[in-house]
Amino acid sequence: MLKTFLKLFVLASFGLAQATSAPFVDLGYAKYQGYYDSNFGQNIFKGIRYAAPPVGKLRWQRPQPPARSRDEVLPAVEYAPVCPQSPSSPSQPPVAPSGNEDCLFLNVIAPANKTRLPVLVWIHGGGYGTGNNQFDLRQQIRTNGNSYIGVSIAYRLGAFGFLSSLEVESFGVVNAAIYDMRFALEWVKKNIHHFGGDPRQVTIAGESAGGGSVMLLAMANGGREGDALFQGLIASSPYLPTQWDFDDAWPTLSYQAFINEAGCSDAEVPFECLQSADTVVLQDASARVSTSANYGQWGFIPVTDGKLIRKRPTQQLAIDRNVNGLRVLTGNNENEAPGFTPQNITTEEQFVEFVLTNYPRLSEQNVSSILELYAVPDDVSPIYADSDGVTPPFSTTNSNWAIGWQQAANNLYAETTFVCSSYWMADAFTGARRKSSWKYQFSVPPSSHGADVSPLIADPKTQGTGMDEVFRTAFQETWGNFIVNGDPTLSTAQASAAGQGNITAATTGSWLQWGGRPDRDFMLNLNMTGGMPVTTPRQVGGSIVDITSYVPSSGGSYPELEATFNLVRGWQWEGGRGQRCQLWVDLGQWAFE
Which one of 97, 346, 349, 529 is most buried, counting C-beta atoms within 10 A? Predict the structure, then answer.
C-alpha cells in the first residue's frame, strides 16, 4: 500500500494523469486533456500550443509565449492545422491555401504511469517548405519498451519561416523557423516533466530537412551552448542546400519575387505591407516563388545570418568542429538523389551544366577538380545495380536508378546535399572530451531518400518490401538505445532475441564509433540479403525508371530475406567517398555560400 501511495504521489506531483481514457495536464498557461491509447499503453496529447500565433505584426519575428487561456480544459485529441505549404520545383503551386499560419503546436506521446523518462523531439522534413508534425512515434516507443517520451513539433515553412533579405533582418528575423524550433525546445525543457519526461535527457532527431534542422541546431550560436537544450542528436540524411548569407543576391531575389507576388513591391516599406497582407495572398506568393526554384529545390531555405547561424556547415562542422550537444547518431541512404536530380543527363557537358546550375560560384578550376573525382570512364559498366560500397562499379557510376553521367550527377547531388553533411556531423562530435559519434548507411533497395523513415516507425511485424522483422526491430532499437542510454549499439540480449539474421555488427563492442579521420571512420552498413526481386516502374524527374526491390519469397525458389549489418570504412566507402567529401569542404566557400 505504501509503495502504491508513493507512486501515485509522484505522478500527482508531476501533474501527470494515470492511464485513464482522458489524461489531463496543467501547463500553467493552459490545461489540456488528451486520451489514453490502451493498445500502446501511452497517453496521447495532440495540438498543444507552444507559441503565440505568428501572424500580423508577429510575422517574421521571434516566436512569443502563448497567451493564457481561460480556465476551461482544452481538448488535445486532434492534430492542429498544418503550416502553409510551399512545394518544390518543378511543381504547380496549390490552387488554394494549404495550411494555417497559426500552426505552432506540438504533440506528445508519453508512456503512462512513468516519470523521469528520456525525451525524443522529432523535427519533420520537407525541404523547409512542406511537411507537418503528424508523425506517429507510438510504435517505435513501444518497440523500445515504452522507455521514452516522443514530442513532434511544427515550425514555420517556406517564406513564413525562411524569408531573408537585409530588409527582413532590419525589421524582423531571418531563419524565423529555426527560432521556432529552439522555442519548442525551451518549452520541452520547461514543461516535459508534466508528462513524465526528464528535461535533462533530450535527444533531437529528424530526417531530410528535419535532419538538416538538427544540424543547424547543433551549430546554433557558434556551437557554444553545450547541452543546455539537448544532449543527443539523430540526423538522418541531413539536408544541406546552398547556405547563402542572409543578404546575398539569391535570398534577396526570392524576397523581391515574394513581395511582387504579394502585391507589396510599390509599398513605402514592403515588409510592413507583408505583415498586413491577407494570409491567402501570402500563402500563394510563398508557393509560387518556391516552385520557381532550381529543379528539386525550394525557394526559401536557411541562411547564414551571422547571429544564430554564423558559419556554413563545411567550416563549422568539418573544420572547426564546434557543436552543441554531447553525442550524435547520423546516417544517410544509398540512393538519396534521383528525386531531386533531372533524369536527362547523358554527357559530361550536361553534367557540368547541372553542377554549375546548382553551384553557380564554382570556377573553371573548381569544376576541373570535381571532374577528377566524379568523371565517368569510357568503359563504364552498363549494369543497373546498386553498389556494395566495397568493390566496383561504385555509386559514382552505377546504381539501380541510373548509370553513366546520370548516375554521376545523382551521386554528386546525394553527396553534396545529404551524405557529406552526415559525414561532417559525425566528424564534429569526435576528438573532444565527452563527445561521441556513430554513423550508419541505410542500403536496403531501393534505398531512396526517405526510405528509412517507415521502418523506424512501423510495426516490425509488418510485411513489406525489402525488410523483415529482425531488421525493423534492430533499427528501431538502435535509435531507442541512443535516446535512452546515449549509445545506439545493441545489447547481447537484443541481438540474441532476433534469433536470425547477421546483425552482430551492431552490437556493443562491434559497432565502433566514428573516429573523424580516414583510418578510424567506422560506419555500420544496414542491408538485407535474399528475397525475390521485383521490378517496378517509377516516375523520376519526368522519366520512367525500372527499380528493383526485394520481397519475401513465397515459393521457396529464392533465399529468405535476412538482415545483414556490416562494419565498413567510411573514408574508403564507394571508391573514396571521404576524399570527395573533403573536396566539398575545400570548395565550401564557393559551393555552399
Answer: 97
ω before 90 within 30° of 0 (cis)?
yes
Q: What does the pLDDT read at residue 13?
A: 40
Residues 558, 428, single domain; the answer is yes
d(CA 241, CA 580): 17
Residue 135 bridge partners (DSSP): none
Q: Does the pLDDT at position 1 exceed 90?
A: no
Q: What is the DSSP string of 193-225?
A: GGGTEEEEEEEEEEETHHHHHHHHHHHGGGG-S
pLDDT tens across 388-421, in order? 999 999 999 999 999 999 999 999 999 999 999 9
Looking at the fold, whether 120 and 258 belong to one and the same domain comes out as yes
Tell me the C-alpha distance between 526 and 244, whole Å. Answer: 34
CA distance 515 to 525: 16
Residue type, 418: F
For residue 312, give the nearest of 232, 230, 363, 246 by alpha carbon: 246
Q: At residue 318, does pLDDT exceed 60?
A: yes
How many whole angstroms separate alpha carbon 294 and alpha carbon 288?
A: 13
Q: How many CB atoms lie within 10 A of CB 517?
A: 12
**pLDDT exceeds cutoff 80 at 194:** yes
CB-hemisphere CA count at 13 Å for 499? 5
Choosing from 265, 299, 325, the residue where a domain stops is 325
